[in-house]
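Posting this for the archive.
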Amino acid sequence: MTLKTLDTIRDFAKVMISLVSGLFATYFAILKFLGADDITKPQVQAIMGLAVWPPILFILSLLAFVFAVLPLQRKLTLNVPQTIIDSWDSARKRKFATVVLGTILLLAGMSVMAFISLKLLSG
């Protein structure tokens, strides 16, 4: 692995934090634009149970990306190079896993959001 892997993961997570935060607010604007603010409509009642899932998935995705940015505390023995290598490798794997989890949650939220939008448009 390259030495810049942790920097790349951190930079990606920072960008995704901004993106998911914006998408969270945009979701509610899209619902209002599509007419989901009137709960008497039959198409709005059909998606009532699904409408809460995108924000929940976006928040979980946001938390995963925040955990990828946070530094990990670990004790090192500086006179044993293998502990430094093991610590770096462990941090890389953990941060990569949280970024992958955040991306999966984001895509799941966007998929549910697209489904809800299509349901509202089909009327």
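The first helix runs from residue 5 to 33. The chain has a mean pLDDT of 87.
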